[in-house]
Amino acid sequence: MKDVIAIVLAGGKGTRLDPLTRDRAKPAVPFGGVYRIIDFTMSNCINSGIRKILVLPQYKAFSLNRHIDKSWKFLAPNLGEFVEVLPPEQRIAESWYAGTADAIYQNIFRIERERTRDTLILAGDHIYKMNYADMIAEHRRRDADLTIACLPVPRLEARDFGVMHVDDQHRVIGFAEKPEDPESMPGQPNIALASMGIYVFKTRTMFELLFEDAKHQDSRHDFGHNIIPRILDSHAVFAYSFRDENRKAAAYWKDVGTLDAYYQANMDLIQVDPSLNLYDPSWPIHTFQPSLPPPKFVHAIDHRVGAAYDSIVCNGSILSGGRAHRSLLSPNVRINSFAQVEDAILFEGVEVGRHARVRRAILDKHVHVPPGFSIGDDPELDRARGFTITEGGITVIPKGEDLERFAS
Fold first, then answer.
1. Contacts 24+ apart (CB under 8 A), 267-274
2. Can you give the pTM of this predicted structure?
3. Could you tell me if 249 and 334 lie in one domain?
């Protein structure tokens, strides 16, 4: 894979994940206790043997840049390996990235330097395991100009994706980005073939298409809206069926674009047989792991019991006489005596005071729950306090929120 460069698009605002994205880009949102969402795409690259990686951030990029520096700068530049973060420089246009294609176009100068045969374009905000090397091999076997990874999804859900129509040779003969009425797959009226936003281009062909697209002032400069539909008759565009490295009966690919989807994807991890397997050593998910002590559970003779049931508890956490049920505790979480945490996600540095109760909630970093305080028991009360309540009834507390003002 030395003649492949991967470009990770990481500039999404993630507005539907607010308040978790008030201070960070969507790819930098914590997931599964110790990871960030982008770690899954980055790990797929490393596990696939791809070691030339460019990350293109845009909005609220500080947290993402810091995470990349801590987690992903272990490659060897003297061997031609790298992970580089390229923020918008307005080198070509005096504007932010206008679309996915424009983000690549504004960084052509950097991509050209590597003189790679193929370019792999990825989104940094999906949760899945995939061997990109297999897709690239298929792309080359077919001598394709562009190969698009795809998977079947329920037809109504396909409104949020690019929808493809392919012939019996897997050649793409139709493509519509986020259609109101998605076309179903032949013989499957309730299923549509969705693009995963994963593309392999012949690098030289991609340059030609980007330069051509830049001339169109009416273009949205987006692969799904503009470039792909425009080239179906003139170029060899093929679909590649998603091959899951998660080793489960059903393929796992999640766009955690809403708070409820994000909450459920995290809650899936604590099941007896989780749909996403984080414990497979053959396909590890890499991230930065700080040097923290192991989790600690403190019991006392006066009925204070520090315990966690059906939960994930990360390093540095202390359950000092408090209990967690069906919850995910990130590093350095503390649950104090007689406190109860149920069906909740606690980010790094959260502290739950004595006799407090947290249920069906997401607490962002460094939230301190005062003693005796309740979150999630009464959604209407939480809404009156100004907290975000999702359609599924999950209470979300933003980073560093001062809850003491409600306790007095």
1. 267/326, 267/328, 267/343, 267/345, 269/32, 269/312, 269/328, 270/310, 270/311, 270/312, 270/326, 270/327, 270/328
2. 0.95
3. no
